[in-house]
Design brief:
single chain, MetI-like fold
């Protein structure tokens, strides 16, 4: 006789299996399609079987030389994607923790107003302010530069929000003890806030890296130089519905996936221990 506990366990496992299929299915489908020829994909769309052209498609991507000066290569695109992704992640994380620290611990009169003004920027994504942002970037001489691609994406209020919510949970005694010991704002930030915030920092860094890594429209608008092509732009260059294009999609998701694996054990396991 099946017990209610066994039914709940079976239901939970079923939900987990369906979730895994839902999340991994598109990646598996893209990988299988990347082993087919472009003609097959053009005729029959995505494929659910092995095509036998794995080496042909991936070797074509890895030896790609495109653009007016043949400067669009896999290594160059990977380099640009890493610069943009790491730049956005580092600056966003740094600005977020500093702004949240100022709002929570300095306690100036308009701190709440400043925080809500920062939070309002979530209502205006980068795509909604392309024209104005482009004008500012052009006036600063940031056209066709990595800085021009990175800086507009740094203004992400979500990091400030998460840090602020965490800082509000810290006990008042921590700050009072630091003040009694003569600890200044900088030392308190370095010795206490940063070590306590590592799990949140890792999570925000990963999210920010994904935002920078997956940018397409803004790099397309701000740069016309072939040497600034990223991997995401390269997918459009090769053709997203072609065999090599599918292969480049798989290659493009590998670095973020490796970063997620590297940070998972450090960040999320640490968070789990803290909650215990």
């Amino acid at each position: 006789m099946t017990t209610p506990q066994a039914l709940r366990s079976g239901y939970n496992h079923l939900v987990l299996i369906l979730g895994v299929i839902f999340l991994v299915g598109p990646i598996a489908l893209t990988f299988l399609s990347s082993t087919h020829t472009s003609a097959t994909l053009a005729r029959d769309s995505l494929q659910f079987s092995w095509g036998g052209h794995f080496l042909d498609n991936y070797s074509r991507v890895l030896t790609l030389e495109a653009g007016f000066t043949d400067s669009v290569t896999p290594l160059a695109m990977l380099k640009n994607s890493l610069i943009v992704g790491l730049g956005v992640a580092t600056l966003t994380t740094g600005f977020s923790i500093l702004s949240a620290y100022a709002v929570v611990f300095f306690r100036f009169k308009i701190a709440a107003l400043v925080f809500w003004l920062v939070l309002v920027t979530l209502l205006f994504p980068l795509e909604a302010r392309f024209v104005n942002t482009f004008e500012v970037a052009a006036s600063l001489g940031l056209i066709n530069t990595h800085a021009g691609i990175i800086l507009p994406a740094v203004a992400a209020a979500i990091g400030t929000f998460f840090y602020r919510q965490y800082f509000l949970t810290l006990p008042e005694e921590l700050l009072e003890a630091a003040i009694m010991d003569g600890t200044g704002p900088v030392k308190f930030f370095i010795d206490f806030i940063i070590p306590l915030s590592w799990p949140r920092t890792a999570a925000i860094f990963i999210i920010s890296f994904m935002i920078g890594w997956n940018q397409y429209l803004w790099p397309l608008m701000i740069s016309t130089d072939d040497s600034l092509y990223t991997l995401v732009r390269g997918i459009r260059l090769i053709g997203p519905t072609s065999g090599p294009g599918m292969a480049l999609v798989i290659i493009t998701i590998i670095p973020p996936f490796l970063l997620l694996l590297a940070f998972q054990k450090w960040a999320f396991n640490t968070l789990h221990v803290e909650q215990k």
